[in-house]
Design goal:
By secondary structure, the chain is mostly helical. It has 3 domains: about 260 residues, no CATH class; about 120 residues, no CATH class; about 120 residues, no CATH class. Helix content is about 70%, strand content about 0%. The chain has 20 helices and 2 strands. It has a two-stranded antiparallel sheet with strand order 1-2. A hairpin with a 2-residue loop joins strand 1 and strand 2. Helix 14 packs parallel to helix 17. The radius of gyration is 31 Å and the shape is elongated. About 30% of the residues are buried.
Length: about 525
Amino acid sequence: MNKLILNEWIKLFTRKRIIVLIILVLLSGLVAVAAVKLDDHNNRTSWQETYQNQIDMYNRQLARYPQFDETEWENELSYQADLLRWNNEIQKYQFCLDNSIPTWDWRMEILEEYFQNLLLMDCVRAGWNSEDISTYFGFSTDTDLTQVEQENENLMIYVLNNDYQTYNREQLQNAEERLIELQEMTWLEDAEETLAMAENDVAMWERYVEYNTPPYAADNWMSVAIERIHDHQELYIQYTHLSPEDEMMQPENSEELNRRLQNYQASIAKDLFSLENQTVSYDIQKDVYTEQSTYVNFLDLSITSSMTIVLLGMILGAVMVAGEYRYDTIKQLVIYPYKRKTILRAKFHAIGLLLLGTCLLLFGINLILGFVFFPSELEMPIFTTYFAGNVYWMPYIVFILIKYLFVLMQAIVMVTLTVMLAVVTRSTSISMAVSMGAYLILPPVLELVYPALGGPSIFKYILFGNLDWSQYLINDVGIPYAPWWVSLIVVFAWWFIMRRIAYFTFKHREIRE
C-alpha cells in the first residue's frame, strides 16, 4: 500500500500544473489579507472621522445654499428651518469631537436632548411663532424659554460633572420603578410579555452596575456582552409570546421558530458564561468596535481560503482516476500485483494525506500572515459553544483549527464523489464539472427551495445540506435544520455508498487491450 501511495505522489508531483495549483492553494490566504485590508480602507472609519464627515457634509450644504432656492424648498420658512438644523448638527458633532464623546457614549442620549432644546431656543430667538415651530420641528407650542434654558443648563452640568456609574445607578432605579409600576397595575395589555420585557431592562442595568461597565460602549467587550444578552433576551421574549395568528406560529414555520429560539437561548447562555468568567468570547469580540481589523478578524475570514482545499481535492480526484483512462495508463496500473480495490484505495489515501498536509500547512501559513499583517493587541478570545444545556469553551486557535479540519472532511467527501464519477464516466472534465457544480451550487439552491416547498423531511438526507459541521459549534443550524447526529450519519452514509460504488465499478470495469 505504501509503495502505491508513494507512486501516486510521484506521478502527481511530476506534473508542474499540480505543483502550481498546490502553491496557489497555500497562498490563498493572501487573498483573505487583501480582502480584509480592502474592507478596512472602504468601510472602517473611526468615530472621530464619522463626526468630521458629518460636519463637512453640513458645511457643504451651507456653502451650496447661501440663500433660498425655490427649486429645493417649498418656501422661505422651510429653507430657514434646514439652516437651523444644519448649524445645530454642526454644533453637536463639534462638541462631541472637542470633548472626546464617541457615537456610543452614554452621554449622547443626554446631548441629543440638550441640542434639541438648543434648536428650540434658536427658533424662538429667531422670532419663529409657536405654530411654525410645531409645524417644522414638531416641538410643543407652549414653550417656556426660561424653563428650557434652565433645563439645558442642568443637562450640561450633568454631562460634564457626572460619570457612567451614576448614570447606571439612575437608570437601574428608573427601570425598577417602572417594573413596580407595571406590577401594580390592575390591568395590563399583554401583561406577561410586558412584565418580562421590564424585568429584562432591570437585569441589563443590574449587570452594568455589577460589572462597573459604561453602557452601550461599543469598544468595551463587557458592555457589548450585556447589550447582546439584553437584545437576545428581548427577542426570545417576543418569539415566545407570539399570537396564534402570527405567521411564525404556522406549522410550516415551526422549524424556523424553534431554530431562532434555540439560537437566542444559546447566545444568552454563552454571553453570560463570558461575563461570569470575565473572559471575552469570540462571539462577543467580533461585535466589539475596532478602528482596524484584528488578527481574530483575519483568522475568521481565512476559513474561506481553506475552501480551496475542497476544490484542489476534486481536481486531484479527477486527474488521478479519470486521467489514467485519458492517457491510457490504466493498463499498466492494473497489471500491478495488487487487487483493483487496493489500487483505488491507495489513490484515496494519497489524496487524503496530501490534503491533510496542505490543510495543516495552510493553517500555519495563515497564522503567520495574520500575525504579520494585523494588530493583535486585543485579548485573544475563547470560543464558546452551547450543547445539551451547558456551555463549553476552547481556545480560539483550536476552534479555527477545527474549522479547517471540518473543511478537510468536506474535501474528503467531495473527493469520494469525484472519484466515483471519474470511475463511472472515465472523464476528467465531467467528474470535475459535476462535483464542483454540486458543491458550489446545490447548498444555496437547497436554502431557496426548502422553505418554498414547506420543508420536506427528505431534504435532511441530501448530502449538500449537511456538509457544514461548524454550524453545530456556533449554534446556528441552517437549512434543512438537521440535528448534528443526523448530519453525521447522513454524511457518513453518502461517503460509504459512493466509495462502495467506486470500488465496485473499478473492480468490474473491463480494461481493453
